[in-house]
Every structure is written in structure tokens, then in C-alpha cells.
Amino acid sequence: MLTDVGFGVSQILPVLVLLYYVPEDSIVLMEQPEIHLHPSVQSALADLMLAVAEHRRVQIIVESHSEHLLRRFQRRVAEGTVASSDLMLYFVRTNNGAAELNDLKLNKWGEIENWPEKLFGDEMGEIAAISTAALNRRIEADGRSGASE
């Protein structure tokens, strides 16, 4: 039964209906359509948006914080299945209390040439911190086991 599925289904069904039943050549605005969806489903949603935009000639404007959507868009450009000129990406930041819209420059290889600092946090910093912490714990564990010998 539909009541037995996860909450994400209730979030994605209106998106699917909208994308497939809005008249062709329409403009669709969506706010965080990926919310409550598994990361793999978020990526599939990006592919669905690209397909609908191409085949139904629907312009889709999405406000999102999803790294999975963005990465899938980048991947499709890198693969050559979507032209970078067919996607517009923006980053909004505040500047002295005012919103500032910044165009992210997506090249034909799927790379964002002007990647905002810490757009999705400090991924490399987190990876480095995890590795350092794990190494320190291993050294401590080896030191304790060596001291008891």
C-alpha cells in the first residue's frame, strides 16, 4: 500500500505529476524537490529533470541544496549527454545582508570553474580530519599494546 512506503514518496509524487502533466513549453519552479529522498534517488531525479526538459521542452528552475543533483548535472555534461549551455547554475550568498546571485561557470567538461569556497562544507578538510584522527587512534592503540608486552 502507498501508506507503507517512506515519506520521500509523498514528496516525489507531486514532482513527477507536475513534470509529466504540465503543458509542453512551460516553466516549472520547484523548491527542494529532493528533500527526504535517498541520495541515489536524488541523482535519478536530476536525470529525470534533464529528460523532461529535453523531450517536453520544459524549463525547470530548481532551488536546492543537493550535492547529488548538482553532481549528476555535472556528470551528464562531462559525459556529453547534456551541453553545459543547457544548464544554468547559480549560487546565492549574502553580502552585507543582501542576497547576491552568482553564476557558476560550468564548462563543457562538467567542471565548475568558479567553485564557491565551502559550497558543500569543507569536504577535503573532513576527509583529512578523519584520516588524522584514525591514524592517531591506531598509533595510541599500538603504543598501549606495545607497552604491555
What does this protein structure show overall?
The mean pLDDT is about 85. The longest helix is centred in the last third of the chain and has 25 residues, at about 125-145. The termini are far apart. This protein is about 45% helix and about 15% strand. It folds into 2 domains: about 1-115, Rossmann fold (3-Layer(aba) Sandwich); about 115-149. With about 150 residues, it is α+β, with helices and mostly antiparallel strands. The chain has helices at about 5-20, 40-55, 65-80, 125-145, and strands at about 25-30, 60-65, 90-95, 100-105.
Summary?
By secondary structure, this protein is an alpha+beta fold.
The shape is elongated
Query: What kind of sheet is the major sheet?
Result: 2 strands, parallel
Query: How far apart are the first and last residues' alpha carbons, in Å?
Result: 61 Å
Integer tally of domains: 2
Q: Structural class, from secondary structure content? A: alpha+beta
Q: Helical stretch count?
A: 4
Classified in CATH, the superfamily of the largest domain is P-loop containing nucleotide triphosphate hydrolases
CATH architecture of the largest domain: 3-Layer(aba) Sandwich
- Please tally the β strands and state the result: 4
N-to-C order of helices and strands: HEHEHEEH
Instruction: Tell me the radius of gyration.
Output: 21 Å
Task: Report the helical percentage.
Answer: 40-55%
CATH class of the largest domain: Alpha Beta
Relative strand content? 15-25%
Oligomer: single chain
- In terms of per-residue confidence, which ranges show pLDDT below 50 for 5 or more consecutive residues? none
User: How would you state the average pLDDT, rounded?
Assistant: 87
CATH fold naming of the largest domain: Rossmann fold
Q: Widest sheet: strand order?
A: 1-2
